[in-house]
From TrEMBL:
GO terms for molecular function: DNA binding. It comes from Olleya namhaensis. Keywords: DNA-binding. This is DNA-binding transcriptional regulator, PadR family. Residues 20-91 form the Transcription regulator PadR N-terminal domain. It comes from the Bacteria. It holds the Pfam family PadR.
Amino acid sequence: MYVCNMANSKLYKGSLTTIILKLLNESEKMYGYEMTQKVKAITKGELNITEGALYPALHKLEAEGLLDVEVKKVDNRLRKYYKLTEKGNKETVSKLEELKDYIKTMETFMSPKFSLD
């Protein structure tokens, strides 16, 4: 899947789709290796997405109509660039809202204010 240097990598299970959508929401288009390096840089090496996890996720998102693919020749090699479709933009908004709600709930849970009232 993807490698996480943090203590509990299971927390990242299921978050790859959201990570991909967020990256593409912030860039016009990206290719796979570029995504892996961006995640590594943003997380200062704490989260490393493997190609074995990334490409099946990208293909699934493409099949669901969330991504468009553009193939370009770069340095005599073909490179696939991924970008969000209109449907992908809507799904990104939805996924990011879900994540924000989840984080807010977890923050509330982690710092409860007990009362004797």
